[in-house]
Design a protein that fits this description.
alpha+beta
């Protein structure tokens, strides 16, 4: 009888101590690594195809092709045609992006939210970013074309739309 009481007491102790174990905390480096997960493989290559903008006075087309394991693009507007490499990725929250590498933004004044209005020191020349990113959702690529007064930029000046939506044909 004492053996069964001892056994029950031992089992109860193990149960209570196992419930009180703390979960391991992830370090900030591990969290950053998880956020930078990039999916290079894409089943059925859903991103490949021809995309066009049908809104307003902004004729833009984009052709995305896959060659071996990398993507390439042909980007056409009313005044220019650009070709280059494209990178397709997915972040840890599931959002998918296509980056058109090698396209220099048309204008970039940078983030002015931390500047004083009475600042007499001349601003240094900012390096204009290169690469246009587009959010991919259900056969539609969306490019935020320009910023606001606090972060002024224009990626594609020949199109006046704030958000350029390129829909797959």
């Amino acid at each position: 009888m004492t053996n069964s009481r001892f056994f029950l007491l031992f089992i109860t102790y193990l149960t209570l101590t196992s419930c009180n174990q703390k979960k391991e905390k992830l370090s900030s480096t591990e969290i950053l690594k998880e956020e930078k997960i990039v999916s290079k493989e894409n089943p059925k290559d859903e991103i490949e195809g021809t995309y066009t903008n049908t809104a307003g006075d902004c004729p833009i087309s984009l052709i995305v092709l896959k060659d071996n394991k990398s993507y390439h693009y042909v980007f056409k507007t009313a005044i220019r045609t650009l070709k280059g490499k494209a990178t397709y990725s997915q972040n840890s929250s599931g959002e998918k992006y296509l980056v058109l590498e090698g396209i220099q933004w048309d204008e970039y004044e940078g983030d002015i939210s931390n500047e004083d209005e009475n600042d007499s020191i001349p601003r240094k020349e900012l390096e204009i970013p290169v690469g246009i990113d587009a959010l991919y959702v259900k056969d539609t690529l969306t490019i935020q074309n320009y910023g606001n007064a606090m972060n002024s930029y224009t990626k594609i000046s020949e199109c006046g739309l704030k958000y350029i939506q390129l829909i797959k044909k």
